[in-house]
Amino acid sequence: MTDLELLASFPATGEAGPVLNDWAAAEESLHTSFPPGFRAFLDTFGGAKFDDFLQVYRAGAENKYVDLVANTVKARGTMERTRDWIRELLIGRGVEPAQLICWGGTDNADMCFLVPHEDPERWAVLTVIGRGREYDLYEGPVESYLLRVLRGDLVSEVFPEDFPDEEPAYERNPWI
To answer: What is the pLDDT of residue 176?
Structure first.
């Protein structure tokens, strides 16, 4: 099974049905072309919330608090204005905060980003704590990062000790 399939096999509650993402509008607004793996991730988990803590955004959500574009624009500004050490990390990768894609966030104001790369297979995951200097940088796709965190194979510097739950689950909300 792929990491996406393994993640999708976690216990789930909520609404079934397809997740509708407006990829064309999101790519135009954010001046990027999303890798196929990320599209598959959001087409599976857009609008979902893991362990009632980590919200995954959706491209084209009517609710601005879970919309990929609205959250990305806001988070890019935050990274540019307040996170010098993140800017330095990104410069070393040839990326600016204005290129980050904010795919999720937590109840503690932690932000989950994609870090673009010219090779779609080499996009990375950056998770930044809401307040403080901690961050995770994972060289791989979102679904692999999230799966490893939820299984406990990867201990995050950002997420609190009580995340994930002993038996991780998620709530589907594809229409949010």
So the answer is: 81
In this prediction, residue 115 carries a pLDDT of 97
Over residues 145-151, the mean pLDDT reads 97
pTM of the model as a whole = 0.95
**pLDDT higher than threshold 90 for residue 149:** yes
Please check the confidence at residue 18 and state whether its pLDDT lies above 90: no
For residue 145, which of 50, 75, 73 has the smallest C-alpha distance? 50
Closest residue by Cα to residue 141 from 4, 32, 30: 4
What letter represents residue 101's amino acid? I
What size, in residues, is the chain?
176
Compute the average pLDDT of residues 123-141: 95
> Which residues are paired to 66 by β-bridges?
none
Other Cβ atoms less than 10 A from the Cβ of 114: the count is 23
* Residue 166 vs residues 34, 60, 63, 83, 133: alpha-carbon distances, Å: 32, 32, 30, 32, 27
Phi first, then psi, for residue 81 (nearest 5°) are -85, -30
Query: How far are the Cα atoms of 12, 51, 122, 149 from residue 35, in angstroms, in the given order?
Result: 26, 26, 9, 22
Spatial contact of 47 and 112, defined as CB atoms under 8 Å apart: no
- Token reading at 109: 């104001």
